[in-house]
Amino acid sequence: MVLINFNNLSDMELFFFLALAGSAIAVGFDNADGSGEESSERSEPEPPIDPETPVEPDPLPQNISLSGTAGTNDILDGADGNDTLTGNAGDLDLLAGGGGDDELHLGAGNTATGGQGADRFVLDDAGSRETVIEDFELGTDQLALTPYSSGYVELIETEDGSGLRFIDTLNNQTILTLPGVSLAEGEVLEVDFLNGNGDIERTERFENPGFSAPFALDAIRGTSGSDTLDGTAGDDVIFGEGGVDTLTGGEGDDTLYSGSGSVHYEGSYNHYPGDLTRVGDDGDVLDGGSGDDRLWIGPGTTATGGAGADTFQAFANVYEAGTPAAEITDFDPSEDQLRIDIPVVAGFGSIPSYSFEDAIAGLSVSYDADQDSTLIAMDGIAIATLPGDQSGVSIAFHDDYSTSEDRWRDAAGNQISAEEGAQASILLTAQEYYSVFGDNGSASPA
Fold this sequence. Notes:
The chain is mostly beta strands. The protein has two domains: 65-207, Serralysin-like metalloprotease, C-terminal (Alkaline Protease, subunit P, domain 1, 2 Solenoid); 220-431, Alkaline Protease, subunit P, domain 1, CATH 2.150.10. The chain contains three helices and 33 strands.
């Protein structure tokens, strides 16, 4: 400590001392804000950065590639990346893509969920087991099938109408189901068809199949016994099922099936299990009532359309030599139409198939004056009888199935327009017949 005796200082020395002391005091107490007051806060020094502890970035999604093991039922889970998952045909593999834009290769019997993202599903091998894609999104996901010949894959609705199903018509089996997917009017589902190398060979556009078969959840159904079923004032769908049934549509535009039905027609499929030829038990009686009705007839069926422009639908391959013809009691050629589907590809067992030209040559229309009825037959097999002399009715043949050409011919085999053919009183259409579901039964008449 330094002691200063102020008594020994001159006035000038005392002035300079006080000036220096005041400056020191001002400097010591003056803060950065100029307040002159001492601050009670002190800034803490920044901690030193440890050069050996780097800052970790957020991990990027990893792209995973997984394949199942043949002969085992595998569960393949993707992550958030763009994953590639491959199942095996014949196994009950479960593939889940997770996030990201995934590619899932499916074999017969596999079930897949793409998850979030725009996913691509590739059906590599359909085999004999049905494959399911549980969350296919129209407009976002992609679908590819390999290998299938052009024209042998068709799209139908599932049995309950809540999804879509692809059918391999060449091998007569369901190959792929898309639950919860539907196509609105005008919407299309584009499908890539790949060759053996996995390259796109062609792209096909599938439209809404609409009401494509005799199936309806609210249909009126009979039993295996003999039923009497009456429709309502609305548009009814009535199945007689087995037995000798009497079906009456009543008012409205009704559809009456004398059996359970289970046939292929107009490029579409029946979804209701039953024997392939149960389109009419001998003795069934159908009465459409008023309205524009459609009556599905079979051997021995008696059908009355009633008032309105009615369509009577028959399938040539459910008739054989010795089976009785269906009887149409009130056929009016000015407004009604008899449509007969003819198989142009070999059917089952003894059921014949026809070339388009053979079908034209094989149809006969003959009037029986004693019975006052006209018999419609194919190669001598009775199909249906019409009341009165209708040997001069207009006849047309249509084939857009067996060739790429859309062919329309008259009874003499001459080319006619589609408009003229569609107005014919008797119209024969070329189709292929096969069982879609395994429990549909044989081809023998019901």
